[in-house]
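Q: Sequence in, structure out?
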Amino acid sequence: MTQFTLPQNSFLLLLGLVTMAFVWILLPFSGAVFWGIVLAIVFAPLHARLLAACGARRNTAAFATLVVIVLMVILPMTLIAAALVDQALGLYAMFSDGQLDFDALLRRVVAGLPAWAASLFDRYQSTIINTVQEKLTSGITEAGKLAASYAVNFGRNALNFFIGMAVMLYLLFFLFRDGRTIAARIKRAVPLNSHYKKPLFDKFETVIRATVKGNVLVAMAQGTLGGLIFWFLDVPGPVLWAVVMSFLSLLPAVGAAIIWGPVAAYFLFTGSLWQGAVLALYGVLVIGLVDNLLRPMLVGKDTKLPDYLVLLSTIGGMALFGLNGFVIGPVIAALFIAAWSLFAGAEEFHGE
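A: Exactly. Output:
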């Protein structure tokens, strides 16, 4: 076993301290740095093509890739966010003005229940209605307080958002321009044998690219399809529900059904049989089919992770890291599998 001298130990201690201090400094911009790295990996093939087309002019290729990202990702996201806020405010106004009467909606649902369920509801009617009213009132009140707090802090939140966006784009430019050099230096600095480093780095890059592209494409497809059927069935706020379904579809197998399932049940229980049947069939055969076909092809195929592990790592990652977790969770799971596979291979090799 290698014995380190006092100067070597002191340098390692210093290296650890300055690394922790550097990470601490970057914490306020951790989201911007994280998504800058993710986008650099995802759009690396596009940048390589643009670099070849620009005659190896690195600054021009990096700037061109940045423009494509702004037009393809950031601008559409901004427009969708504006529409989302508009429809969310519209629904909140309907709640506040009493245009949506939850007592009437609940009674319409009860009227469509079987006789035994309706009699059970009549027995506990007052308790159920009071509980529902209490939850809705508290929910609307909290939503109002949240909206007011966002209104008060809008300037600060907007400033932080634009600063983070500027940091991400600024970092992206240099990652595209000098990314290969930076990656090569990081690989050299990692104290692992090349037998381990190459597969782990390759797996890291593959999983990030597959997870982001696959999950984003599935989310966009499911959200768009869900928003279209909600618009066709005249459900209030189709853009809002489309965005919500897009976010929920990041959870494999169960995501978008959390929204369209209860709406279909409401239609069926309230006598709107054709709307409920259309939505249920559309949800299972169209929205569900997108998840069952595209996700294994775009995510599981490249990451080589089983569906149940993709689901668990995505849910766990989002529980711990928020929205960033839909990338971080599968990456950690894939590196876990890759590291243990390498370890098992090394044990077999040494055993021979």
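The mean pLDDT is 75.
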